[in-house]
Structures are given as structure tokens and as C-alpha cells.
Write a structure and sequence with these properties.
Elements lengths: L1 H33 L4 E5 L4 E4 L1 H7 L7 H4 L1 H10 L3 H4 L10 E9 L2 E11 L9 E8 L1 H48 L5 H28 L7 E4 H14 L7 E6 L3 E4 L1 H17 L9 E9 L2 E8 L6 H5 L18 H11 L3 E6 L4 E8 L15
Parallel strand pairs: 7-9
Antiparallel strand pairs: 1-2, 1-5, 3-4, 4-5, 6-8, 9-10, 10-12, 11-12
Helix pairs in contact: 6-7, 7-11, 8-9, 9-11
Length: 386
């Protein structure tokens, strides 16, 4: 009789345990459903068994339903979206310690990044063989982190190149002046004119770098409000300015457009076109009988597509891939510091547009897209940036 009473007691205890476990499971499910953040419950193999409305909305699957009630289709959606669930929910010797992973989803709104964190559901009396996985979007944090890293690398690169490019012509000019001084003391003046010419070239190089750095600094400054810009007048002004400061072979600059005016920030548009036209002129092909640059402005729906094409020496694919990076130079045989196209990129970004290499051989083309409705940027005195 005693043995039977013990067995009966065990059976009652087992029933109570099962009821307790069922009660805990119901409480966990209710809590899961009530949470506003995306949550799901998985078994130890990482297979989803329940999720809340927030996760259902995120992945467009029926929320608040058990797997058996909806079939395998919804489970497949979740496991395909979060392929690391099995890893996140793998049994661990650390008990309830959290596990994390990152998943990237391509959604209608674009690429979104999520962090998955799981904790094993447990109770001192009745541990549950499930994991609760919290899904937190970290798209903004990841984007900011990437941009911060890129900015840091750009600063490091900038400091290295600027320190080198500023010191090199100064050191060369000082060395040349020392030779000139010695020649004057010795009375051997035959090479002095050539040495003075080289000294002047080194100082001119330094002056150009300082000018480029000033342009780069102005690219990040606020500009006046958008205004109506006459394209013909602007391109003629740029072409005349470039010809005035150069004694090289004259280059023809032509213009075609779908509309004679653009509403944008004139200072930035002038910097964009001046750098592109000047760059095209610098890399002209000496074998061309008629070097020419053509600027075209076409209506592209919500944008204006501005293309600057030339019949110059072109660029390699490797150079094209890095064309807008700071200090990227097309060739070592042409003057410059590799800041021109980077300055263009800065101006285009602040106008809400995009820029790309449209062609690397004849015609070599740079394509700029600018929105017809420019973004609003703060107003400053134009004299501060001219």
C-alpha cells in the first residue's frame, strides 16, 4: 500500500509539473505577444515556434500563431530571413547566457541590418526548452559606424598626403635656392636662369595645392540659396577663365542642353563644371588635331543629367574605379594633386546628387545627376566662399 501511495503521489506531482509547464508556456506566449519589439521563440535547434505581431509585420508573416497552426511557409520565411537562428539558439554550457548575431535583409525600403540576441527561457522549477530571440534594427548604427570609419581613414590619408605634398616643393625650392646662392658666390651664373625657373615651378606647385585645399574646404561650407543659372553664360565664363590662365593649345568647349537654365546653387555648379572642364583640358590628347570638350545637360525626369565629355587620353579602369577618391591621379606625367574630382564629389553630394565615370575612352565622360528640386542648405555671405 505504501508503494502504491508513493506512485500515486508521483503521478500527481507529474501532472502538477506538466500543468506548471503549460502555465509558464502560456505566460511566456502572452508576454511575447504583448511586447512592441520584434520577438520570437525558437526551440533548441533554432526553429521558430511562435512570434509576436511586431516580427510578423517586419517580415510580412502571420503574427501570434503557433507553427502547427500555419504550416511551414511562415517558418521558412523567418529562417530564410535569419539564417543564423540555429547558431544563436544552440544549447550552451553557460545556461541562460545571451548569444548574438547579425542579419542583413533586403526589403522594399532598402537594405536593413538587424542584431539577433537570444536568451534561454528558464525557470528554477521547470526550465523550458525554448529560446526567446529579440530582433533589434541596427541599420543606422551600422551605417554611421561605416561612415565614421571611412571618415577616419580619409583624415589619415589626407594628413599623410598633405604633409608630404606641402613639404616636398618647399624642400626642393630651398635646395635650389641654396645652389643659386652658391653659384652667385662663385660667379658661375650660366645655370641660374634654369634654376630660377625650376624654383618658380616648385612654388607654383605649392600654390596650386593650397588652392586645391581651399576649394576642398569651401566644398563643405554652406552656400547661398538656389538661384536660376544661365548655362551658356556660366560655361562661357569658365572657358574664358581657363584660357586666360593657360598658354597651352586652345581647346574648344561646346554646350548643348534641354533647357537653358537650371535652378541650383550657382557657386557649387560653377565649381563642379570648372573642375570637370579643367580636368578634361589637362588630360587632352596631343595627337588630336582638334581637342574638344562637350558639356551636355539633359532632362532625366526628377534630375538633370550633366555630362562633360572629351577626346583626351582617357583613363584606365583602375583609375576610373577610384576616380573620386582623395589624391587619386590619372597619370604621374601631368600636374595636379588628385583633388579635382574629389572636390566635385563633395559639391555634388551637398546638392543631393550623384557623380560617376560614364566612359573611360574616347569620349571620356563624367556624368553628374542633380535634383531639379535642390535641398535647402543654410545661407551665408557669398563673399566668404568666393
Amino acid at each position: 500500500m505504501v508503494g502504491r501511495r508513493v506512485n500515486a503521489s508521483a503521478r500527481v506531482s507529474g501532472q502538477d509539473g506538466a500543468e506548471d509547464r503549460d502555465g509558464l508556456a502560456e505566460q511566456a506566449a502572452a508576454l511575447l505577444d504583448a511586447m512592441p519589439t520584434p520577438l520570437l521563440a525558437c526551440d533548441t535547434s533554432g526553429c521558430p515556434v511562435r512570434w509576436n505581431a511586431a516580427l510578423g509585420k517586419l517580415l510580412d508573416v502571420p503574427p501570434d500563431r503557433h507553427r502547427d497552426g500555419i504550416g511551414d511557409a511562415a517558418v521558412d520565411i523567418i529562417t530564410n530571413a535569419f539564417p543564423t537562428l540555429a547558431e544563436v539558439c544552440a544549447p550552451s554550457t553557460t545556461g541562460g547566457a545571451a548569444r548574438r548575431s547579425v542579419a542583413t535583409l533586403d526589403t522594399a525600403a532598402g537594405e536593413r541590418v538587424f542584431e539577433l540576441e537570444s536568451v534561454r527561457s528558464s525557470c528554477e522549477r521547470h526550465p523550458l526548452d525554448t529560446f526567446v530571440v529579440a530582433v533589434r534594427e541596427i541599420t543606422v548604427e551600422r551605417s554611421l559606424s561605416t561612415r565614421l570609419y571611412a571618415a577616419r581613414e580619409e583624415i589619415v590619408q589626407f594628413k599623410y598626403h598633405v604633409s608630404h605634398d606641402l613639404s616636398a616643393p618647399i624642400a626642393s625650392a630651398r635646395g635650389l635656392l641654396g645652389i643659386i646662392e652658391h653659384s652667385v658666390e662663385e660667379g658661375t651664373l650660366d645655370e641660374v636662369p634654369e634654376l630660377l625657373e625650376e624654383t618658380n615651378a616648385q612654388l607654383t606647385r605649392l600654390q596650386r595645392l593650397i588652392g586645391d585645399l581651399m576649394s576642398l574646404a569651401r566644398a563643405g561650407a554652406d552656400m547661398p540659396k538656389p538661384e536660376v543659372v544661365d548655362l551658356r553664360e556660366l560655361v562661357d565664363e569658365i572657358a574664358a577663365s581657363i584660357s586666360l590662365h593657360s598658354r597651352e593649345l586652345e581647346v574648344s568647349v561646346t554646350l548643348s542642353f534641354d533647357a537653358p537654365t537650371l535652378t541650383t546653387e550657382r557657386v557649387r555648379l560653377r565649381q563642379i563644371l570648372a573642375n570637370l572642364i579643367s580636368n578634361a583640358r589637362k588630360f587632352q590628347d596631343p595627337e588630336e588635331i582638334a581637342p574638344c570638350i562637350h558639356v551636355s545637360v539633359k532632362d532625366a525626369g526628377d534630375d538633370w543629367r550633366i555630362s562633360v565629355a572629351d577626346n583626351g587620353i582617357g583613363m584606365s579602369r583602375r583609375t576610373a574605379d577610384r576616380a573620386f577618391d582623395m589624391f587619386t591621379r590619372g597619370t604621374s606625367t601631368h600636374p595636379g594633386h588628385g583633388l579635382g574630382l574629389h572636390i566635385v564629389l563633395k559639391h555634388v553630394d551637398l546638392l543631393g546628387g550623384s557623380v560617376a565615370v560614364g566612359g573611360i575612352s574616347k569620349p571620356t565622360t563624367i556624368d553628374v545627376r542633380l535634383p531639379k528640386v535642390p535641398p535647402t542648405i543654410g545661407v551665408v555671405d557669398p563673399s566668404d566662399v568666393e
